[in-house]
């Protein structure tokens, strides 16, 4: 009986601790009395933890389990203390100075609700588009494609972060923009001190309009091979050695490509034209002879069910630029053929995509695709990653990171700025011309 009790108490205690932590997060921050409540809760929790620690240590045979539980206790206690500190500090104000295209809320939302809805660890932020709050704002976000040089704040206070925000990339020697480009000379030196873009060296990395891949932690085995659940037999050798894939019967077409912009800096259209000489490629949109409307709709994505491969070819070969084309293919159970300037091994699990850069010529790529087409087992290996990973469309982690960094006291003391943001964005690491790639892969 005592042994059963010792096994049960830690689990019960951890559940109660986590419930209390959730309860703390849900308490409105506008009531000052909550500070005393949270402090009391944290102290009571630490007291219970200390008592249970002493009790558990009386049993030397369970020292390893005790140590693991104590470490988790400390982590949860620290989290409660962090929540208390967050609730005591005033919220950080994030001002959208420009709209994001036609959205004044940057498609994210206003107030504190977005950070709560996104499940951010730190939610002590309020987003607004009210320019009257400029002087008290902690972060001011400028969508670089819509910046008007005659409509910029003249002064940045020491505590403020002026954020260069951009998802798109245009290979140019000036800052990317719509219509007439703004030369970097129109920005004052050191005007921006933070960046928030799809590049992973940004101060805040954000991939919201494109996608991400997240691990399914609960599916990862402790070792390979993993033990089987009770009353489960191993795989039948007769089935393993005679596999068939009936669901591939509908995939009777080879390569699909959706493209609405031609010509492009990457010259992807030229590569696809050459590839078409060796394998069937159906081109939808302005770059081809086929059409699907409305574009980017579920109806158009369902067309991919008939294809085995999808060309995720970017319009420019720029650092860290991986657009929604890639994640569209991964979501729809079709093998993406990537063409871009990013290191795709950092974006997706091994053997989940085919990279054009790995083949000497379009003909070599076509030969490999034909091999996969005639060997279902080889083709299906490109989907093994889905056992342990999932595609996230419109990930919000970047906005959570922004709020967390604004509340990080260590970053408040760090002084930095960009003398010329165009130097960082374009000239320091330029996009690779498609013409240069084609010369070496033809």
From TrEMBL:
The protein, known as: Fucosyltransferase
A single GO molecular function term of this UniProt record: fucosyltransferase activity
Listed InterPro entries: Glyco_tran_10_C (IPR055270), Glyco_tran_10_N (IPR031481), Glyco_trans_10 (IPR001503), GT10-like_C_sf (IPR038577)
Chain ranges of the Fucosyltransferase N-terminal domain: 91-206
Alphabetized Gene3D superfamilies for the sequence: Glycosyl transferase family 10, C-terminal domain
Regions that span the bilayer: 34-54
This protein's UniProt keywords: Glycoprotein, Glycosyltransferase, Golgi apparatus, Membrane, Signal-anchor, Transferase, Transmembrane, Transmembrane helix
Keyword Ubl conjugation (UniProt): no
Membrane topology according to the record: Single-pass type II membrane protein
Record GO cellular component, one term: Golgi cisterna membrane
A Pfam family matched in the record: Glyco_tran_10_N
Superkingdom: Eukaryota
Main location per the UniProt record: Golgi
Extent of the signal sequence: none
Involved pathway(s): Protein modification; protein glycosylation
Domain Fucosyltransferase C-terminal span(s) in chain numbering: 249-424
Enzyme Commission number: 2.4.1.-
Localization of this protein: Golgi apparatus, Golgi stack membrane
Family the UniProt entry places it in: Belongs to the glycosyltransferase 10 family.
